[in-house]
UniProtKB/TrEMBL annotation:
Bilayer-crossing regions: 12-35, 42-64, 115-139, 145-165, 195-213
MF-aspect GO terms: nicotinamide riboside transmembrane transporter activity
Species name: Cellulomonas hominis
Topology class, membrane: Multi-pass membrane protein
Origin: domain of life: Bacteria
Protein name stated in the entry: Nicotinamide mononucleotide transporter
Cross-referenced NCBIfam families: NMN_trans_PnuC
Protein family (similarity comment): Belongs to the nicotinamide ribonucleoside (NR) uptake permease (TC 4.B.1) family.
PANTHER family: NICOTINAMIDE RIBOSIDE TRANSPORTER PNUC
InterPro entries registered for this protein in UniProt: NMN_transpt_PnuC (IPR006419)
UniProt KW keywords: Cell membrane, Membrane, Transmembrane, Transmembrane helix, Transport
Pfam families: NMN_transporter
Length: 232
């Protein structure tokens, strides 16, 4: 067995259950990405992509004949879309960082938090409802485990990641709704490390929501002062 095969199949036993190391490692990369997002750092995006690639293989347990032999197509599919949205966020935040350096503030965060507003919430609700219904039907046809819960996790995760890229404070709230559904689903399907990490994420997202809200309140007076300087 070569090294790559060993890394792919390596397992540990937790409370009598076999667990893949790549599920643990993939979720740790995801947690690191969430913490980077909380601090509004560009490196959060590439770190998250590494975790997405690992977890894509984990959630196709039936395809890869892993100890967790249930296929969660929504969980696996969202990793693919995560990568696409992460590239968008990576580019967007990198551009903001370059603009900050050019303006003489190289240590400024990559994004200034803001509320999504009515137009943003219309997008969130419309995509959330329609996307969940459509995806649930698709996942049912594919034989996914818990298709309706899986569909919401899939759609909600994409919305949250897109909201993070746009700098919407509400994206943290969407993550809370995803975690509330994700923990029971993952426990029932036997993906215990992912379920535990979802619980940890819940603490991170609550903290992130507060941090971004406060950052928005601090940024608002600065924007007003800057606008007054330009008009003067």
């Amino acid at each position: 067995m070569n090294v790559l095969s060993w890394l792919f199949d390596a397992q540990l036993v937790v409370a009598g259950h076999a667990v893949l190391w790549r599920e643990v490692v993939g979720n740790l990369f995801g947690l690191a990405s969430a913490l980077g997002g909380l601090r509004r750092r560009v490196w959060a995006w590439p770190v998250g992509i590494v975790g997405n690639v690992l977890l894509f293989t984990v959630f196709l347990g039936g395809v890869f004949h892993t100890p967790q032999d249930r296929d969660l197509y929504g969980q696996a599919g969202r990793q693919v879309f995560f990568v696409a949205v992460a590239v968008y966020g990576w580019v967007r935040w990198s551009q903001a960082r370059r603009a900050a350096r050019d303006a003489g503030t190289p240590d400024a965060p990559a994004v200034v938090p803001r509320w999504a507003g009515w137009s943003g919430w219309v997008q969130i609700l419309l995509i959330g409802v329609v996307g969940t219904v459509v995806c649930a039907r698709v996942f049912e046809a594919l034989g996914s485990w818990g298709p309706w819960a899986d569909a919401w996790i899939f759609v909600g995760s994409l919305l949250a990641t897109y909201g993070m890229a746009r700098g919407w404070i509400e994206f943290w709230l969407i993550w809370i709704a995803v975690d509330a559904v994700g923990v029971p689903l993952l426990l029932s399907a036997g993906y215990y490390p992912s379920a535990v990490l979802y619980l940890v994420y819940a603490g991170v997202v609550v903290s992130g929501f507060v941090v971004w809200w406060r950052a928005r309140d601090r940024a608002e007076p600065q924007q007003v002062t800057a606008a007054a300087g330009v008009s003067g």
